[in-house]
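Hey, quick one: can you model this chain's 3D structure?
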Amino acid sequence: MKKNTSDNHDHHGEQSVSHNHNDCIDSALATAEILCVEQGQRLTKVRRRALELIWESHRPLGAYQLLAKLAEEGFNSAPPTVYRALDFLLNAGLIHKVESMNAYLGCSHADKDHQGYFLICDDCHNVMESDYQDIHSALIAKAAQQGFELRAKTIELTGLCADCKMPSEGGRT
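Sure thing. Here's the predicted structure for all 173 residues.
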């Protein structure tokens, strides 16, 4: 039940010649299967489908959007079911929560220990994940110097993506 879609972006903020979303979905699901086995967890049908739907959207997806899609497909339509699946996927490192949008995005680096930040377009609402290990280390050190205990380590930067800032060349401005 996957969409056969492709476009000219990837999930690292770089342009690519041809991007097939099905490859992303297949890769994310294969990574999820491996990580679940390694962690002694089960990738249940609802968890698997939730992850697949998040990757299909290729944009942050809210819990109630996910709930509606799952309900259309005959899954349990109770909010706790979706939140349990999202909590599982978050804890397994398979998705990220984009706090400012209260939405979820597939993790492009789920198979690697990493710290990321998000570039969020104010116009099209596309979100790109990038790795920031050096910045992360510097921020942790600075917080420690100040005696500050970090509880969340998500960095979200907002602005306009390359497509949206292009005037009259297919951009949205």
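One thing worth noting: The chain has six helices and seven strands.
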